[in-house]
Amino acid sequence: xxxxxxxxxxxxxxxxxxxxxxxxxxxxxxxxxxxxxxxxxxxxxxxxxxxxxxxxxxxxxxxxxxxxxxxxxxxxxxxxxxxxxxxxxxxxxxxxxxxxxxxxxxxxxx
Length: 110
Prior knowledge:
With 110 residues, the protein is α+β, with helices and mostly antiparallel strands. The chain has one domain: Ribosomal Protein S5, domain 2 (2-Layer Sandwich). It has 3 helices and 4 strands; from the N terminus they run αβββαβα. Strands 1-2-4-3 form a 4-stranded mixed β-sheet, sandwiched between helices. The longest helix has 18 residues, at 54-71. The radius of gyration is 13 Å and the shape is globular. The two termini are 21 Å apart.
């Protein structure tokens, strides 16, 4: 689970990161990285209805949160990361999601 300081909560933050952040596309996710500074790294997740039912979307969101909690130490301080789940993420297993996210975080947020 991500601690409160490591979560994006405001819609304006999401919008700014998606519009101005560096983009990295994977098979099941698209990762946007922006920000900088001394604050802790923050993560946000976008899982639309195209992914599936509410149960499926929450499962995907929980998996993405777990991946980010594992990878938190490898992310530079001050990085703001938004991960958008693509429709194929509903059928992907945990290891596939982890590979997608970790690869993009190493490229953009390390």
